[in-house]
């Protein structure tokens, strides 16, 4: 771990992998859409040039395990060899980023999902343990459960709060099984658990009680995997009422895990949500409202007080102009400095994604890729006449590099 007064600068490449097309959707494989499979070496060279010391890096499970129990490591071998050759850039391997293999019927709700995702994790560790010590068992359980289990946009297309809870239960069991498998294979491995941070605000005084409950519910993943929910817990009745049974809660208590690092994904455009009558009466998904760096700090302080573990900002960025991205990065730097001064053990700060990305509606809206680009990146993706996406460094990248250089020189925060 770094000295608590210094943090690591990191980046990530958007790595959503949803290959299912049974309902007429297009595959949502971000590495394919941003041409990372084609330019992966050059992309990672750019990351090293940025001064980032770590990278959140996803593995496309659906490609790695094209058949049940049959693995194809041909592409992954090349990338892991790159990391082995460049130890100054350490990967946090993102094993599960929304999508499952195409052969897994009913996707996350398959009864075998927890054991199968753990089997895949164990196979990865058996091959690459000498290269990779840092893992994210599953990215953003909340968003995964929301899109797959509440809105029904992604497979297995469940809907409503019950679908959300059923999905969350399956995902959390998969997280526990994955961590157990990785710790057996690599006892010294470090688990960077990554969750979408949430802050719920009431739209009116009449909604304050409901907002308070939602601000407890946002911790459901952390509470489940650590076996904290039992009679008297604020989420106990919610769990039982949403088909997370006492036997499930007992299983979590018997198999509890502890996070090594708490990963916080915070986006000022998405992470603060309003609780209003549509949420209370119609069970709609809470809508986002603009958030601030102070909101991010509030979330971090809450998590640090609650769990007492090192915190890493595992995703943050701004979907907008380059100037807006620079402004947000400056706010993040200031907020991070304040968090350290206020006593938070801040492990790292991650700009995510490093490149622009194809936004998720691409999967269903039928519009060309160029009309689906989300401008979060330190590098702008400019589509050429032949379809090639040119990587163009922008001013946000220059600001990030300056911060990383300052860190490595020992001024203020720095990597260690």
UniProtKB/TrEMBL annotation:
It comes from the Bacteria. This is Family 1 glycosylhydrolase. Keywords: Glycosidase, Hydrolase. GO terms for molecular function: beta-glucosidase activity. InterPro entries: GH, Glyco_hydro_1. It comes from Cohnella zeiphila. PANTHER family: GLYCOSYL HYDROLASE (PTHR10353), LP05116P (PTHR10353:SF36). Gene3D superfamilies: Glycosidases. Pfam families: Glyco_hydro_1. GO terms for biological process: carbohydrate metabolic process. Belongs to the glycosyl hydrolase 1 family. The lineage of its organism: Bacteria, Bacillati, Bacillota, Bacilli, Bacillales.
């Amino acid at each position: 771990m770094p000295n608590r007064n210094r943090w690591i600068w990191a980046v990530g490449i958007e790595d959503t992998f949803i290959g299912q097309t049974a309902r007429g959707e297009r595959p949502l494989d971000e590495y394919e859409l941003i041409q990372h499979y084609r330019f992966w070496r050059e992309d990672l060279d750019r990351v090293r040039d940025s001064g980032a010391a770590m990278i959140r890096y996803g593995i496309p499970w659906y490609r790695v395990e094209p058949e049940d129990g049959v693995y194809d490591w041909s592409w992954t071998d090349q990338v892991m060899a790159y990391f082995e050759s460049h130890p100054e850039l350490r990967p946090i391997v993102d094993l599960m980023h929304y999508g499952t293999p195409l052969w897994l019927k009913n996707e996350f709700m398959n009864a075998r999902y927890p054991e199968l995702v753990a089997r895949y994790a164990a196979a990865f560790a058996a091959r690459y343990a000498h290269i990779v010590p840092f893992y994210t068992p599953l990215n953003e359980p909340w968003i995964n459960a929301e899109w797959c289990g509440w809105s029904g946009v992604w497979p297995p297309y469940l809907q409503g709060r019950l679908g959300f809870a059923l999905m969350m239960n399956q995902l959390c069991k998969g997280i526990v099984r994955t961590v157990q498998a990785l710790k057996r294979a690599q006892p010294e491995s470090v688990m960077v658990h990554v969750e979408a941070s949430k802050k719920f605000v009431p739209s009116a005084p009449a909604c304050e009680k409901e907002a308070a409950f939602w601000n407890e519910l946002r911790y459901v993943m952390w509470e489940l995997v650590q076996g904290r929910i039992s009679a008297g817990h604020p989420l106990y009745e919610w769990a039982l009422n949403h088909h997370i049974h006492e036997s499930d809660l007992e299983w979590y208590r018997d198999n509890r895990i502890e996070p090594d690092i708490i990963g916080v994904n915070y986006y000022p455009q998405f992470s603060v949500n309003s609780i209003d009558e549509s949420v209370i009466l119609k069970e709609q998904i809470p809508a986002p409202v603009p958030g601030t760096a102070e909101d991010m700090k509030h979330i971090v302080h809450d998590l640090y007080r609650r769990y007492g573990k090192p915190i890493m900002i595992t995703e943050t960025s701004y979907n907008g102009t380059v100037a807006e991205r620079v402004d947000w990065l400056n706010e993040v730097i200031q907020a991070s400095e304040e968090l350290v001064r206020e006593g938070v053990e801040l492990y790292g700060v991650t700009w995510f994604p490093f490149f622009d990305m194809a936004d998720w509606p691409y999967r269903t809206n039928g519009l060309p890729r160029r009309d689906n680009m989300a401008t979060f990146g330190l590098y702008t993706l400019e589509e050429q006449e032949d379809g090639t996406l040119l990587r163009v460094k922008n001013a946000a990248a220059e600001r990030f590099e300056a911060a990383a250089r300052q860190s490595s020189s020992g001024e203020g925060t720095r990597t260690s």
